[in-house]
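#data-curation
PF: Archiving a pair of folding outputs for the training set. Convention for this channel: one message per protein, sequence first, structure tokens after, nothing in between. First:
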Amino acid sequence: MLQPIQMKKAWILLGALTFMAACQTKSGQDPILAEAYQLHLEALDLKKQIQPRLDSLIAVDSMQYAPLGKAFQEWEASLVEVPGFEHAHDHSHGHDHHHHDAPPEVTPEQMKAIQSESIKNLKNLIAQIPQ
């Protein structure tokens, strides 16, 4: 049986190992996934900026802008989360969102390509929105 001093050392060691493992997970993230996450955040920021303008155009002339609104919703539904990175969705514009999951078996390079393509597609949609 462990003596009280040995027990205390064991608990301290266990706590330190747990803390180190948690820290390593955070700092040990793949740099390419970190880049993919930055691209994901950029896309979400662009979405947040353009959503009110698109909503107001649809409110004024739904026949003309409904196809663009549908394309925007399809883009939004195609969003893919970057594994290991969480963020809060902005639900202030009244749309319901489902949680986006990363596709299984995606390499960091593929995830970065997915996020790059997402931004490219969103920018193409934004170019169609009159200022």
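PF: Second:
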Amino acid sequence: MLGKRGAKPAGRENSMGTVVLAIIFRNMFVKNNLWLEFGFFLAVCRWHSHCRGANLLCFVSVFHTTSFATKGTVMKSRLLALAAAAMALFVAGSALAAPIVYEGQLLPGVPTFGVNTQAAANQANPVGANYFFFTSDGGTPITIIGGRLEDHFDMSFWILRGLFNDTNQFGTTFDGSDAGFVAFADDGISHPGPFGDPQFGPLVIGAGTYTLAVTNFFSDPDPTNPNTNPFVLNASGVTGVIPEPASIVVWSLIAGVGGAGAYLRRRRKSA
């Protein structure tokens, strides 16, 4: 539950709103002044956790300023250097992303296991989360319960409508303003370990395919196996329909190749 620990999970402000306000402020106060303009947009980048949009805005702004700046060669060189620096910030922000590989589908009455390797306090970090998917018929109440398999793991999960290919689609953090956001589940079920286990529902949600991302909230350290956090997911009310976007097809092919390899190894041993 949000707020149970005294703070909402770390997130980001609405990126489009930030960009619009930045443009208005720029046009009113810092337009046509290269140093004020560049410094202002660097401050936006620093403040705004969804930095890719702000860095790109900074990059565009510097190039825009170039069109009416002093025509001297030295000034142009400085402008190009500043633009290159802004572009480097933009690229660096994008480089933190990671491709999303779904580990499995949640099926009714079938436990689904996983191991989270995030450090504590990564409850809103899409990088390193464990991704699963499930489908809804739009009429049956759905319940999903997450259970830690080691007492130290303080588990949480996010539910979003749709399937995703890359963590860039969430920005630097999960947040309630993400497209398709459905719920964040945390301390729904009491547990003797640190805090509680997450539960979603029972709740009727629209028909379609959904993503569930498991994250690490405030786990205790495990001196034996650091950042090794096993868990199980149990779902009811979900359907067995299997979607086939590119990411799921790739995941299925990998699973199929792995299964075929294991089968052939068993055959060789028995021969």
